[in-house]
Amino acid sequence: MTEPGKNTTEVIRSSLARRHRAERRFRAYGITAVSFAVLSVVVLLADIVAKGHGAFQQTYLRLPVTFDGTLLGVTDAADARQVERGDFQALIRAAVQRRLGEPASRAELREQVALVSNGAAYQLMARLRADPGLLGASETLWLAADDDIDTWFKTRGGEEFTGRISERQIGWMNDLAERGDAELRFNRTFFTSGDSREPEQAGIGGAVMGTLLTLVVTLLLSFPLGVAAAIYLEEFAPQNRWTDFIEVNINNLAAVPSIIFGLLGLAVFINFFEVPRSAPVLGGLVLTLMTLPTIIISSRAAIKAVPPSIREAALGVGASKMQMVLGHVLPLAMPGMLTGAIIGMAQALGETAPLLMIGMVAFIVDIPRGFTEPATVLPVQIFLWADSPERAFVEKTSGAIMVLLAFLVVMNGLAVLLRKRLERRW
Amino acid sequence: MSPVNLVITLLLLSTLAYYLGQGRALALARPLGGIRHLHSLPLYYGMRSALWCGLPALALVVLWLVFDDPLTRWLALASMPPEAVPGGAAERSLLLSTIVNVASGALAGDGQPAAVVAAAHRYQEVRATGQHLIAGLAIASALGGLAWGVRRMSPQLRARQEVEAVFRWALLASASIAIFTTLGILLSVLFESMRFFDAVPASDFLFGLEWSPQTAIRADQVGSSAAFGAVPLFVGTLLISAIALLVAVPVGLMSAIYLGEYASARVRDIAKPLLEILAGVPTVVYGFFAALTVAPLIRDLGERFGLSVSSESALAAGLVMGVMIIPFVSSLADDVITAVPRSLRDGSLAMGATRAETIKKVIIPAALPGIVGGILLAASRAIGETMIVVMAAGLAANLTVNPLEAVTTITVQIVTLLVGDQEFDSPKTLAAFALGLMLFVTTLLLNVIALRVVKKYRERYD
After folding, report:
1. Based on the number of CB atoms within 10 Å of its own CB, is A103 exposed (0-12), middle (13-18) or buried (19 or more)?
2. What CATH architecture applies to the domain A205-422?
3. Chain A environment of B287 (Cβ under 8 Å)
């Protein structure tokens, strides 16, 4: 190492500056890496919130509606069949005209009617059905605006919205807004209704219900099975080939791409066992197989954490092995197992790919009420909306993502809380 | 009786059997002078009766649920006059589904031939009889089991051992589900793949350079001949995964090193959970982010520099996928780096090496096998990732390694081929299973190698 004419100390001293520069450089790489990762989180979340916060609000227009029997073609509002066939679109046309003035051309009439959502007619129908006495009466109602109008209204003053909205419509909207007849209100439809082709009528109610049903099936199947498997492997399994084989399989299944589970569901559950397509039962079955390794692995960790002294004490006072496990080890390991189960459920909640294979991507308007009815889940709904061309769906998609993330935060928070409150350190 | 009601009835009967068994055990014990003269606790006698009552009956119901469909169908077909039953398997299954649809009312019986309507009636009859029959059998078996379990009871009966043996078998069965899942995956993928390889030679699939799975509906149609050369998909998958790893490995590794070796406790406490958030975000969210934010951004940037970038570029999907697996790489790297013994680190620092030199020349070489294992696991994850590429990568199978162009991947094609209507006799649908087989085998190999490497490495320092 020594160069001629210099001793070791001098060599080291002369290289110190370079080495310290290298040290600082290395540190800077580390800081850059961490900052990049943290920045990604921030950008991702900020982007979603920026795009999606508008989804929780909806533009409503205040219009004077007259339930005119002749326009509607309804003579008796108590007759459900008549009300069903009533021309409520005509009422809206009349109400818009009354508010904005007689249209000069057919095009203008079309633009006037296009201000209001197609769903408003159903809103009027529901009102008349609930209160037949309204026939012939007038009232001022807040009706949902069309999605293009809604998007324009929300981005007003900000970036230019180059959507399908005309100068005339902008004029009307400015007029309505000035007089307080157009305003943003909390969007209840978004939480209560099912999917729709019209962005302003589309909601996540159906998807949330489908998610709930699917997760119930998943939890009911995967938690008992996972805990039982963990108990067997930790407490009973003899050291033999079958046990080794089980362990290898569990570790591999934990790393198999989730889409493969979708193929399994398609080939085995749908084609062989003829489980109904698109049903929460089917989704639950597939997600059970997918989350089982996670639950087994965390349950085993929880069982391992129970000290052997507990087992020895139970056996010492004469408990059988099964009594020792079920009566002493299991209760002590339960908080850890529950934490694992919640994390497994959070994983199942965010999963999309396998559900695409088993028909949960269908366009489903109705909110599912049972385990065998066609349903979709929140992540799949997000996927479907993300594919829709309407600009208003971008906002809905981001809004749905925010709801999904909120669910995940709550579940993970619950897991952390559970771990802190209940888990004992020995 | 519907299966659900039947199962509920059986569960109620089992509960009844539990109390009857327990009561009978107590009654047996009383003249002897208390339950300490029984072999087991009374609750075990109760559980034993409940098991005798419920288990055989439930087994019957499960068997019936599996076999009732083929059986009723076969009986319905057998009731038809032989000349009305076609010889071919495809025609026969068509006829069968007509019969089932007529029987369920989904298809009007008016337009159908008389033989079909008759068979539909027969199908309904057999189904109804079958349901009555199984309900009767199951309940009879439950009552029989109950009587047997409660009557044949003595103070010497080793009830606890019997119950525990059943529990043990149930535990073993639960643990074995993992094996059956793997088997199920293998069989379903293999079986359909074999049918695919009957139609398309394996060499065409593995080495073909053109992928266009649309099959012509009529033989004389032009321009839609199917080609199942999967090389473009393999190249696309590898390209996107490589981009992802180029992002995730340096960032993940350096974050793990910085947070483990340099950062103060406060920074670590803030940064680590933030990294964990990246791991918890659902993949569909990343897909949305890639398709609507990153891809347009990259396209606009490219245009500014005069490059033509596809709006579904491999770069966008790869970058976002890389961000997704950062926490995966960093937590694995963290594991293996903390497993390097303290003494190695201290020795190096004591010799006067700087921290960076210690990390680069001592810790990383010592942890290398673990890091390589982690990278393999990350690669397997990138290859199998679906939602990001489905939403942000293209559908067109271009054979290119230019990251600015659109490529497609194995997972994207599986999803496109299987979403929507499927017919299980066209090579188009079956191709998805062949791709699934490739994906399963590749990821399995990567995982097995990675786990082995990591395990070997852990053993070295344990």
Report:
1. middle
2. Orthogonal Bundle (1.10)
3. 383, 386
